[in-house]
Amino acid sequence: MARRPNPFVCQSCGAVASKWSGRCESCGEWNTLIEEQAVPPVPGRKPRKGRAFSLTALEGEQRPAPRTETGLAEFDRVTGGGLVPGSAILVGGDPGIGKSTLLLQAAAAVAAGGGRAVYISGEEAIAQLQLRAKRLGLAGAGVALGAETNVEDILATLQSEPPAEIVVIDSIQTMWSDAVESAPGTVAQVRAAAQALIRYAKGSGAAVALVGHVTKDGQIAGPRVVEHMVDAVLYFEGDAMHQFRILRAVKNRFGPTDEIGVFEMTGEGLREVANPSALFLSEREEGTPGVAVFASMEGTRPILVEVQALVAPSPFAAPRRAVVGWDASRLAMVLAVLDARCALRLAGLDIYLNVAGGLRIAEPAADLAAAAAIVSSLADVALPASSVYFGEIGLSGAIRRVAHMPARLREAESLGFSAAVCPPMGGDKEAAATKLALEPISRLAELVALVAKAAGRPLGELRAGAGTNQGD
Prior bond to 171 cis, omega within 30? Predict the structure, then answer.
């Protein structure tokens, strides 16, 4: 019988091919197909027979999962209230964003609370970890450090030591196993190492946090099967030019998804931000055209952020559309609705949109705030500084209701805002729950009329005068 050829696995997306090719047909990346050696069967070993296990009914008493609080309130918030014993967490982020710093601080907080924390690094030496801990003021936290990349040696060390509440592996791409004949970082090694560490977590009751690098597309490097294997996937987002860092949960078997924690990068490490809205609005300039405050929802937390827009005459035949912190296709849709339903001439104008502070917004409720900022910049008139904006824009120009409207209004009220431009409330009970002066609008043209009224010009002049004052 002819030997079956070894498969070629893409190191970027995990796709399997029967033969080598310079370009992966699945993700389009070049030079990522690596041949993986099949593990030969052990001579004389008989296949194990299946063992029956008992089945239980669907109904039963539900008990909340036990938690181990780290002491970092923002980290515990994202994980759903703390670390669940026996869980596996995958933390991804760009290089230098602060993943190692965050997990070292979390491990130090667990150790300071009386638990046992172990930090295994495959990228840094013990001296480097000690130097970082000294800089962060965590030298006396009692975290057990180790520098090793072999999974079997790591598991043997962990099993010989007292059980730990948290074990940090930095990073999963540097780990390798003797059972797989592949280089560290390959799909086979990442999968095997992750499986062995997750098996240890389930058997010992320790929470294992795996650090994962991300690709240029922002996805955690290696196969997506690793994300399916773990219990929670957290992305550490941010910009090196901003001091804010966002820890976002995209998967959590023990808590809500899309929950975020906000941190500020300082010289002494990451500092928790208990009130992100006040921080994102701390440098807001009132009286500036093209600025609108958006009441967003990140998981269960309402956050107020500043949406900035600039509309300027374009010197080129094809005007620019630049977006930072929002979906570019969503901006194109809003501009098309403003052009088609509100008769605003935007075809020959450069339009720039920015979410201040480095926060990335994905929900459609930001449509109304983006439109308000664009129309404000177009008319060269500042929006009321005491108003917040949120609402989804339909292709017909209708303003649709969004989720968690009372929570958004309560957050705006707590920060001193007095008015809100939003879709009509669901009833008198919801409207009476807030003290804000509501300006319900059902069509996008009503927003344009409000801005034209503030500018002191008729709607027709606003349509025809697009960009006339942008160079003043």
Answer: yes
Q: Give 208's strand partners.
A: 88, 167
CATH for 279-464? 3.30.230.10
* 298-to-328, 359, 420 alpha-carbon distances in Å: 19, 10, 19
What residue type is assigned to position 180 of the chain?
A: V
Query: Where on the phi/psi map is residue 142: left (φ > 0), alpha (ψ -120 to 50), or beta?
Result: left
Token readout for 54 is 């008992």
Side chain identity at 340, as an amino acid letter?
A
Per-residue CA distances from 272 to 80, 186, 239, 262 (Å): 16, 35, 17, 6
| Domain ranges (residues) in the chain | 1-36, 73-274, 279-464
Query: Rounded to whole angstroms, how far apart are CA atoms 145 and 154?
Result: 12
Q: Give DSSP secondary structure letters for 51-116.
A: -------S-----PPP-B--S-HHHHHHHTSSBPTT-EEEEEE-TTSSHHHHHHHHHHHHHHTT--
First CA to last CA across the chain, in angstroms? 81
Residue type, 454: A
The three-state secondary structure class of 282 is: coil
**Measuring CA to CA, how many Å separate 199 from each of 40, 87, 140, 202, 222?**
22, 10, 31, 5, 19
For domain 73-274, the question of CATH label 3.40.50.300 is answered with: yes
Token readout for 24 is 């992966």
Three-state secondary structure call for residue 234? strand
Distance from C-alpha of 397 to C-alpha of 444, rounded to nearest angstrom: 5
Q: What is the pTM of this model?
A: 0.77
Residue written as tokens 């296949």?
47
The secondary structure of residue 469, as a DSSP letter, is T
Q: How far is Cα 183 from Cα 296, in angstroms, rounded to an integer?
A: 44
pLDDT truncated to tens, each residue of the chain (472 aa)?
455 667 888 877 778 888 888 888 888 888 888 777 665 555 666 766 788 888 888 787 767 778 888 989 999 999 999 999 999 999 988 888 889 999 999 999 999 989 999 999 999 999 999 999 999 999 888 999 999 999 999 999 999 999 999 999 998 989 999 888 777 877 788 889 999 999 999 999 999 999 987 765 556 555 567 888 999 999 998 776 778 888 999 999 988 887 889 998 888 889 998 888 887 887 787 889 999 999 999 888 899 999 999 999 988 888 999 999 999 999 999 999 999 999 888 888 999 999 988 788 989 999 999 999 999 999 999 999 999 999 999 999 999 999 999 999 999 999 999 999 999 887 656 666 778 899 999 999 999 999 988 887 765 565 544 444 443 4
